[in-house]
Amino acid sequence: MYTDSDGMLALPFIPAAIIGVAVLLVAYVLYSIDPTVFPSPDNIINDLRDAYNSIQSTISSLKKEIIGGLIIVAVSAFSKKNTTGAYVISFESGKMYVGKGGMARMFISAAAQSFAHGTLPNGFMFIPKQTNDEAFMQEYMLMVDFGYKTGGCDELYNLIWSPGRSIYFAKYGHYYSTDTGA
User: Fold this and answer.
1) Do 149 and 104 share a structural domain?
2) Do 45 and 99 fall within a single domain?
3) Who is most buried in 9, 12, 56, 145, counting CB within 10 A?
4) How many independent structural domains does the chain possess?
């Protein structure tokens, strides 16, 4: 179970359940209008059950629940003031992902990286910034601090430099810390 910042219960399966009920209600109405044209609600239920079983066998229930929870948290964050900043997400694999954006973007990135690499997030750090340029520069500095070099590194899932690298260079006339500019 998950709760948002207002203490509201957020369960990953509720949106799917609402959609399923809506589909069945429409199916019953259409079937009652003309059973020769529209499919039987029982057939729809069987198709939905088959689709659910197929998805369930593809993705473990724990990962579905966590990724679903991350998406719910992201949607909830969009409804609140979406401050920009830089963030670090750590994963059970031992790797991290550094990004830029609001809290919602952080949770969307966590779900995307989790799905892409088959590992679950186990930690989040968000550093709010006043402007996008400050957030990009913070993202870049975090990447350098975690050992990123052109072409990647073993510690991060990031594949490319943050745009903050060029913003930092334009502002200060040199690259940050151990970044040689190569």
Assistant:
1) yes
2) no
3) 12
4) 2
Write out the DSSP string of 65-122. Answer: HHHHHHHHHHHHHHTS----EEEEEEETTS-EEEEES-HHHHHHHHHHHHHHHT--EE
pTM exceeds 0.90, yes or no: no
For residue 34, what pLDDT is reported? Answer: 62
The pLDDT value recorded for residue 171 is 97
Residue 57: pLDDT over 80: no
Task: Enumerate residues 6+ apart whose C-beta is below 8 A from 74.
Answer: 103, 104, 105, 106, 107, 108, 111
Residues 112 and 155 in one domain: yes
> Can you give the residue range of the structural domain that contains 160?
82-172
Show Cβ contacts of residue 120 under 8 Å, excluding neighbours closer than 6 positions. Answer: 62, 63, 66, 91, 92, 114
